[in-house]
C-alpha cells in the first residue's frame, strides 16, 4: 500500500508537471517544460518499477538510501560486477531503463532532477548522476574482469553483453520479429511485441522503447499480473486447504510420511485431472445446447460463468493494482472443474483484452508465439487461449527461454554473428506445437468476452482507490 501511494504521488507530480511549465516550479527548468514523462510508459507508472522503488526506499529505509552509491537494475548490477565497472562507468541496459526507468531519447535520458525534487530530493540527486546513454543487448558491456575470470575458470577476454529484462530476453529466444507477439507464460504473463514504427505513443501498456528487444525495432511490453498464479491459488489455497487440514488431524492416516506421499500425489495429478474434467465439461455443455435454435446462442448461454483474472491487480491494459478478481454466474451446478475452466477462460479473455487494446491503437499482432512453463505444460490452457484469441498459438521448445535469449545476445556481442536477427536464425528455439482455434468455440468466446468486459467495468467502478 505504501508503494502504491508513492506511485500515485509520482503520478500526481507528473500531472502538475504537465499542467504548469517547469519554469514556474523550478528556476532554470524551461527546457523540460510541458513534458509527459509517462508518454512512452503507457501513460502510467507502476509501483513495481525503478523510481517507485527508489522513492519507497528513501522513505522506509533512509539509512540505506544515504549509504547507496547509486541505484541499478539487477541486470545492470550483474554486468557491472562481472566486468569490474563502477556505477558511473557501467553500460546500462536500454531495455531496463526504457521500460522501468522512464528513460527516452526524446528528453535525452531520464526525467531531470527538477522533476523529481518536489517528490524526493534523493531521487533528484540520483537523476543528476544517471548517464544519458543506454545500450541495446547486442552490444558488449565489457569483458570479464580478472577476479571473475579466475572464479569462473574463464579467460579474461570473454565478452559480457549488456543486460536485459528476463521476459524480453525470452522473446529473443522465441525468435521475435516485427509484428510478432511473444507471450511468456509462467506465474504471470509478459507480452512482448516488436514493431518497425508507431504513429503515436501507445497507452495502457508497460512501455515502448526503441531497441529494447531487437536493435532496429520498437519493443512493446504488456501482460497480466497473474497467470499461472491464479490457477495455483485455486489448486493450493482453495482445493488443497481441506485436504491438508484433514491429513493433519486424520486418524486414518496417522503416518506423517504417508500423509506427505498423499499430498505429493495430489500435487502431481490435480492440475491434469482438473484440465481433463474441464475439457469434458465443455463437451457436455456443447451437447446440451444442440437443441438450441442457434448454436452460437446456445454456446454463449453455457458460457455465462465468467471470471476476472485481476487477482493480483491489472497490469494491462491500463495498470491498476487496486483491482481484484471476481467470478459471476455461479449456480448450484458449478463444480470444481467448471470453476477451474472459468478461471482459465478468464486468463485467456484478459489476454484478448490486451491484444484488442493494442490493435485498436494501430499495433497489429500478425503472429503469436508462447514460451514458459504454462506454454509447455498446460495444453488445456493453451488450446483455450487459441479459441479465445481466435488465433494460432505456436509454442516454442525453449525450456529456459531467458537463458537462451541471453546466450543469443551474448553471441552477437561477441561478434559470432553480424546481427541479433542472424543469431536468432541460428540459435532460437524451434516451434514445438501449434494450437489452432475452433470456429464454433471462438464464436462462443466472443460472446463471453462481452460479459467479461461488463464484469470488469462493474468491478472497476466499485473498487476504491485509483480509477
Model description:
This protein is α+β, with helices and mostly antiparallel strands and 467 residues long. It is 49% helix and 11% strand. The protein contains 18 helices and eleven strands. The strands form three sheets. The protein has a seven-stranded mixed beta sheet, with helices on both faces. The chain has a two-stranded antiparallel sheet with strand order 1-2. A two-stranded antiparallel ribbon has the order 7-8. A hairpin with a 7-residue loop joins strand 5 (208-210) and strand 6. Helix 12 crosses helix 18 (439-462). It starts with a helix and ends in a 5-residue tail after the last helix. Residues 16-32 and 297-302 have low confidence and may be disordered.
Précis, in short:
This protein is an alpha+beta fold. It has 18 helices and eleven strands. The two termini are 16 Å apart.
What descriptors fit this protein?
18 helices; alpha+beta; two-stranded antiparallel sheet; seven-stranded mixed sheet; 467 residues
What order do the SSEs take from the amino end to the carboxyl end, as H and E? HHHHHHHEHEHEEEEHHHEEHEHHEHHEH
How many individual β-strands?
A: 11
Spatial strand arrangement across the major sheet: 5-6-4-3-9-10-11
Determine Rg (CA atoms, Å).
Answer: 24 Å
* Percentage beta strand: 5-15%
The biggest beta sheet reads: 7 strands, mixed
Number of separate helices: 18
Instruction: Output the structural class.
Output: alpha+beta
Mean pLDDT: 90
Give the N-terminus to C-terminus distance in angstroms.
Answer: 16 Å
Query: Spans of 5+ residues with little confidence (pLDDT < 50)?
Result: 16-32, 297-302
Residues in helix, %: 40-55%
Shape: globular
Amino acid at each position: 500500500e505504501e508503494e502504491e501511494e508513492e506511485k500515485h504521488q509520482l503520478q500526481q507530480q507528473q500531472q502538475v508537471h504537465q499542467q504548469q511549465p517547469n519554469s514556474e516550479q523550478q528556476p532554470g527548468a524551461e527546457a523540460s517544460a510541458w513534458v509527459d514523462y509517462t508518454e512512452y510508459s503507457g501513460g502510467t507508472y507502476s509501483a513495481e518499477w525503478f523510481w517507485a522503488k527508489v522513492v519507497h526506499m528513501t522513505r522506509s529505509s533512509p539509512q540505506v538510501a544515504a549509504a547507496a552509491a547509486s541505484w541499478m537494475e539487477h541486470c545492470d548490477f550483474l554486468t557491472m560486477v562481472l566486468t569490474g565497472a563502477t556505477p558511473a562507468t557501467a553500460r546500462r541496459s536500454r531495455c531496463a531503463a526504457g521500460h522501468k526507468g522512464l528513460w527516452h531519447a526524446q528528453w535525452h535520458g531520464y526525467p531531470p532532477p527538477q522533476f523529481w525534487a518536489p517528490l524526493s530530493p534523493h531521487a533528484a540527486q540520483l537523476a543528476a548522476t544517471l548517464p544519458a546513454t543506454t545500450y541495446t543487448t547486442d552490444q558488449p558491456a565489457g569483458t570479464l574482469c580478472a577476479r571473475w575470470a579466475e572464479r569462473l575458470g574463464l579467460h579474461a577476454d570473454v565478452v559480457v553483453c549488456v543486460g536485459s529484462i528476463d521476459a524480453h530476453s525470452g522473446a529473443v529466444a522465441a525468435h521475435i520479429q516485427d509484428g510478432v507477439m511473444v507471450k511468456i507464460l509462467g506465474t504471470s504473463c509478459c507480452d512482448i511485441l516488436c514493431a518497425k514504427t508507431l504513429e503515436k505513443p501507445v497507452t495502457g501498456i508497460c512501455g515502448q522503447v526503441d531497441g529494447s528487444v531487437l536493435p532496429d525495432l520498437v519493443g512493446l511490453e504488456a501482460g497480466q499480473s497473474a497467470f499461472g498464479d491464479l490457477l495455483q491459488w485455486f489448486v493450493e489455497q482453495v482445493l488443497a486447504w481441506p485436504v491438508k487440514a484433514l491429513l493433519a488431524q486424520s486418524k486414518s492416516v496417522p503416518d506423517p510420511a504417508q500423509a506427505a506421499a498423499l499430498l505429493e500425489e495430489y500435487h502431481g495429478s490435480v492440475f491434469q485431472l482438473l484440465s481433463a474434467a474441464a475439457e469434458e465439461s465443455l463437451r457436455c455443455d456443447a451437447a446440451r445446447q444442440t437443441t438450441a435454435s442457434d448454436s452460437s446462442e446456445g454456446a454463449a448461454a453455457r458460457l455465462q460463468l465468467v471470471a476476472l483474472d485481476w487477482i493480483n491487480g491489472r497490469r494491462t491494459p491500463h495498470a491498476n493494482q487496486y483491482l481484484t478478481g471476481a467470478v459471476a454466474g455461479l449456480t448450484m451446478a458449478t463444480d470444481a472443474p467448471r470453476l477451474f475452466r472459468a478461471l482459465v477462460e478468464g486468463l485467456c479473455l484478459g489476454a484478448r483484452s490486451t491484444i484488442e487494446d493494442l490493435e485498436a491503437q494501430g499495433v497489429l499482432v500478425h503472429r503469436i508465439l508462447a514460451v514458459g512453463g504454462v506454454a509447455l505444460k498446460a495444453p488445456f490452457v493453451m488450446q483455450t487461449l487459441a479459441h479465445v484469441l481466435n488465433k494460432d498459438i505456436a509454442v516454442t521448445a525453449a525450456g529456459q527461454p531467458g537463458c537462451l535469449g541471453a546466450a543469443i545476445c551474448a553471441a552477437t556481442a561477441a561478434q559470432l554473428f553480424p546481427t541479433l536477427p542472424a543469431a536468432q536464425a541460428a540459435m532460437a528455439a524451434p516451434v514445438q506445437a501449434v494450437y489452432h482455434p475452433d470456429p464454433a468455440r471462438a464464436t462462443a468466446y466472443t460472446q463471453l468476452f462481452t460479459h467479461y468486459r461488463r464484469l470488469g467495468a462493474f468491478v472497476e467502478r466499485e473498487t476504491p482507490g485509483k480509477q
